[in-house]
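Catalogue entry: protein

Sequence with per-residue tokens
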Amino acid sequence: MSQASAVGAPVSTGQNPAFRELCWLIIAAWTLTSLTSILAPAVLPYTTARYINVALMTGFTFFHGVRRYGWVNITAFFVIGVVITNLTENLSIVTGFPFGHYSHTELMGPKLWHVPLIVGPIFAVAGYVAWVLAGILLGEPEGRQSKGLMAGKGLIAAFITTSWDFCVDPIGGTLNRDWIWANGGGYFGVPWINFFGWMLTMWLIFLAFGAFLAARGGSPAPVTDRRWLAQPVVFWALIGLQFPLLLALAPTGVTVTDPAGTVWAVDHLLETMALSAFFTMLFTALLCALLLTRTPMKSAPGLSQR
């Protein structure tokens, strides 16, 4: 997949150090919102916190992404993510492909056709973080941009994004009642095809973004600022840490019945989600952090190596 983008795409405002500090503030606000919704749901219900957090992550995507890709390209990424996600979800709800047969409940808010408006932005912003993490894993901070490495970036980013879905989907279909699987599934009521469907969807998003960048020509600006690169790593780790926290607060002896009629123990459900996050999301964040720590970075004109 091509990593080309418009020449000069990272405009001067995108290189402003204030954008980096703003991203840290967004991460802090997201953390506070998440903790409040988990520890004090009477103060901030989960359904309300979800909209606040998606708005915060959208801001993070734009203010973080503009530094390398520029406003036009990072906007294109967001739009591509929203459009493709909405199309594949609507297709699956009608036909069963690529996620299986399911429907969203009213708790997810207003819809475009059959899909809640919030779904597209959720996967667009999660996909952006995964895209940056995939770049770190492939050595982009060192300047490695070979076609062989870049061809797999979209696939690796799709794996990373789907690892988050792997953790959250069973909770969404049981505890939160955000969606209903018509025939249930073996993974806490979720069918296996759902996760391969998200692999395909995210790969299509990254493929389309790569094609868009290639069509604009040029190359993305190298960024050697470790603190800029560390922000998506920290964000991903914090998202993953929600699941062990939910497990720590899980009641014992309480069960929940999914829409297909299968009964699950709540503490067992959350234990599985915490383990899934530990060995997928948190492992990815740890690996990226170690790579940033031990990898010498090549200097780039006009960009800090701090």
